Amino acid sequence: MAAHLLAHEVADLCLGKPPLRSLTVSATIGEALASLKSCEENCISVWDCDHFKNVDCICVGKICMVDIICFLCKKENVNSPSLALKSPVTALLPKDSVLVRHVQPSTSLLEAIDLILQGAQNLVVPRETRFSGSSRRKLLQKSSSTRGCTLHNGRKFCWLTQEDVIRYFLSSIGLFSPLPTASIDALGIISTEFLSIGYHSSASLATEAISRSLVDQTSVAIVDEDGALIGEISPFTLACCGETVAAAITTLTAGELLAYIDCGGPPEDIVRVVKERLKERNLEGMLEEFEIDPSDISSNSSLSDEELPSPTSSRSSGGRYNKSSSYSARMVRRAEAIVCYPGSSLVAVMVQAIAHRVNYVWVIEEDCIVVGIVTFANMLQVFRDQLESMMLGHFD
């Protein structure tokens, strides 16, 4: 059984995946922003290439909208976001990062899992399409001057992610019986170290935590005084808001930010609050750079100060979590976080995460107190250990 699972190579998990869109290390953050807005992907690969010297191209990292948002929220950039956008895209890449790793199509599934458990978020896998001779040189020259090019070293590449591997295991989940029905508590995969911020705290205090959650592929919990989960600041949700949310993070509380990022567009009253606070803090540059288009404002979503969501009101209005929720629970103004309980089974948590396209699930108690978080990395470690046991049993 283990031999059957491990016979697969990473190429088998990359079938049908689209080629990477990319930027060169010489691009600016503004160019990266334009590229992200013009494509459907939520991140873009960054490459170090010199096609004219016939040197192999290397993917040195990836960037997404949240990288740009957090960069713009830095103290040195809030006064002049337009100048910050002229910075090189390399300013967004962590030093000595292992978040992106190159692998060959023939790399075994076990090797890929080990790389992910060592910290890799994305594995860069070459596709099988090849070019040769003069056509290859022409394509290389053309791609070297094209924003968003997909060709490197005469080949196209794609990502392999944690989600891809988890989906693979879910498709073969019956082979791991009875592991899938074990509770996440019994498996010991609930991480009690997670990122959080108080509901009434300034959202700007969460900037570093948001950056960390992006690296960890998790989220930042918003909790009340008792540690109960009110909502979350999700990198995925922030990315959907675009770079203008940097102004909201700079001026709003965590609770106000929940209302701002919900419902597909910020309520008009909260937009007014953001503008007033930017003026009070003499952040005219950010105000001018991030003028919010009225068409982005949610219709029928204007809130008065008294109507802004609060931990108390959400608790009484049913916005808090309760055991009757099947997989997720609606929070303040339809913001959604995915939750489970210590007794939830491994397979149920896998299904929740995959169905909602997140790499984590919050773990709460009956009283909604956050006790931890379960991530894809936690799950992969369980499967990695199980595969090793299977292999030892096979050889014995």
Automatic annotation (TrEMBL):
UniProt keywords, alphabetically:
CBS domain, Repeat
| Chain intervals for the UniProt region annotation (Disordered) | 294-322
InterPro entries noted in UniProt:
AMPK_gamma/SDS23_families (IPR050511), CBS_dom (IPR000644), CBS_dom_sf (IPR046342)
Q: Which GO terms describe its cellular component?
A: cytoplasm; nucleus
Q: Where is this chain compositionally biased, Low complexity type? A: 295-320
Q: Which PROSITE patterns match?
A: CBS
Q: Where is the CBS domain?
A: 331-389
State what protein this is by name. Answer: CBS domain-containing protein
Organism (species): Solanum bulbocastanum
